[in-house]
Amino acid sequence: MFPKPHASLTPNTFEFEQFPLVKPTGFREYDARWLFPKEINLMGVQALGLGIGTLVHEMGVRPDIVTGHDFRSYSSSIKLALIAGMQAAGLRVKDVGLALSPMAYFGQFALDCPCVAMVTASHNDNGWTGVKMGANRPMTFGPDEMGRLKEIVCGGTFQYRDGGSYEFVEGFLDTYLADLKARAKPITRKLKVVAACGNGTAGAFAPKLLESLGVEVVPLDVTPDYTFPRYNPNPEDMEMLHAIAHAVKEHGADVGLGFDGDGDRCGVVDNEGEEIFADKIGVMLARDLSKLHPGATFVVDVKSTGLYNTDPELQAQAVKADYWKTGHSYIKRRVNELGALAGFEKSGHFFFNEPIGQGYDDGLLTAIAVIEMLDRNPDKSMADLYRALPKTWGSPTMSPHCDDEVKYGVVEKVTQRFQAMKEAGETVGGAKITDLVTVNGVRVSTEDGTWGLVRASSNKPELVVVIESPVSEARLHEMFKAVDGILRENEGIGAYNQTI
Asked: Alpha-D-phosphohexomutase C-terminal domain location, by residue (predicted)?
């Protein structure tokens, strides 16, 4: 039998090479992330593969699985270790090679595989690895499946099975891009587009797709370099957005598009170099798509702007907004449950259902949607469309460090603190509390519409803080000061990655 994984082992020891290492905290709410090799070694990845196969059979799902890997120096070796474990557990593996996460999700449909295991650390810094998994297309695992997988792997309760096999699917990148191009409508407007890839995996995909649509492409950081020398490929980080904005102004582009490390997210900068947070892009796309699909339902995460509920143009199209838990698996599942036209996350995960997409998050499909929106508004620039939104002042996603072992407890204490303040009639940031949404962390709203969110990050040892005010920039800062003050009543809160 394969050895039971250890929760900790010291690298460069005989034990490290003899036993699997799997740190239990790597099992997140809806995927898995570890520092490699500090928190997981290759034998640990084999154990994960055995666990995935054991769970798939336990769920009664046909054991066909598609896998791929992102562009990191160690991702290919991790994928091979994962495949070894999955085969030993009786899974029939189809390997699409170097891939974006949405390419692997597409493979579930195109290759008729109910299951997926994509080796990627997404936008996490270099040194991280992970796996995005699912066994019911287009959904990926949620907390129940991830909890059960953790039990199997950490407990070493693997079930070996015969029948495992391996097939490499040659040329699948071109198949994936051809499907995306077929979904796009002909572009009649002359457009110049900056395509920023942060030296990550998307550099092999995004420029080629955009050129096939007939737009002029200005490539930015598309050369592969897994050290990510300029910035982390994360379109939520201001450093990447600033680089895109500079390129847009330098080249006179109509729009700048930034893709994250595994290509399932897309960030946007307008033609004037203004960085547009993804939740506002979602409102713009909802405005555009609701004209084609009046009465549509859009699922949005709790980090997102309140405009989905208050925008007059969306109200005129009888749009229904459903605020739900942050996280690609949560939003994906909710879009599927409600039959929503699309789901939008402030992080830039956008999920388009039929007739636009197949329900999973794909940054390249988001890029197509943005370009088609511009094409349908030939007399307006991206900046014009952005200015047409009601004005609000919003923060980027801000993440103070907080260890995985304590972050959920901190959020629970902050939630209880806000609940007590509301019951006592206290103010936050100088305004009365009118509403608390606790579906995912706590989102506290005040009487003037200003709100703040605190939740635990699902994939890193961090908390997440977001603030928005429809009143003024001053109210934005007042609310942030108040929320941060309550947050720091707790021990273990570190520095922010970025602040306002």
From this structure: 427-484
